[in-house]
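In this section we walk through a basic example: taking a raw amino acid sequence and producing a predicted 3D structure, encoded as discrete structure tokens. The instruction is simple. Fold the sequence below.
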Amino acid sequence: MNIKDIMESNRDAWNQALIYHQRARNNSLQIGFANHEFTTLDRDCDNVLIEKIIKMNISGKTISQMPCNNGRELLSLMRFGAKEAMGFDISDIAIEEAKQLAKISGLNVKFERVNILEIDNKFNEYFDFIYISEGSLQWFPNLNDYFSIVSRLLKANGEILIFEMHPFAYFFENGFSSDNQNLEKMISYFNKGPFNYKNGIDYVGGVEYEANECYWFMHKMSDIINAILQNDIRILEFNEYNLEMANNESIKHLEKFPLSYILTGKK
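The resulting token sequence is shown next.
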């Protein structure tokens, strides 16, 4: 299967999953973004992210998130004084909701449905800052392809901030239970995949359903770092945390391990 087919399969899977997400949230985002002080960056793990955002100072800047899902994080980042924002995502349903939330919020944020690897050249050197959030990198078979787009879209001296699940956390994505210690269920750090979420990707409501085929990939930390460096982005800071990001019950007791990280860089 080629990359375009993989991305289209994932598009179908996310369109399916977003319907379950919306049911679980029950218009809470629509109600929330009507309040100009509302933010979705309110998890325990978001405290370290907020510290970094304040330190990097995005006030007056043009920012992006790619992929952006339904735009909730990008809209929340606007509370830190960004001038304008653009979100990109492959899911039709996610972008439809993102546009609705942007309209409700009144914030200067636009959204475009697109395969990230095919973002138009009109956005070349357009952004001062690009945010990459948890669960983003796993959907790209080749990280060099992905970060070449990130670099292309960044202005000279533009910055990135990645707040992602640590590759270590992906060991537990295949039915591993910390209580049962069923080590045969652990995903190999060195097996790139692709892997599939057979019971769906409703991480909001936790509903299991007969899911459309989707493909995700295991990337070592060295894969991530090398792809960044090879695309003219200098790493400024790298920090690892034991903060669980994805509400994964199987790893909640594994606080002795790295479960998330923040990486900042400059083009």
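Looking at the output, two observations stand out. The mean pLDDT is 90. The first strand starts at residue 62 and ends at 65. In the next section we compare this with other chains.
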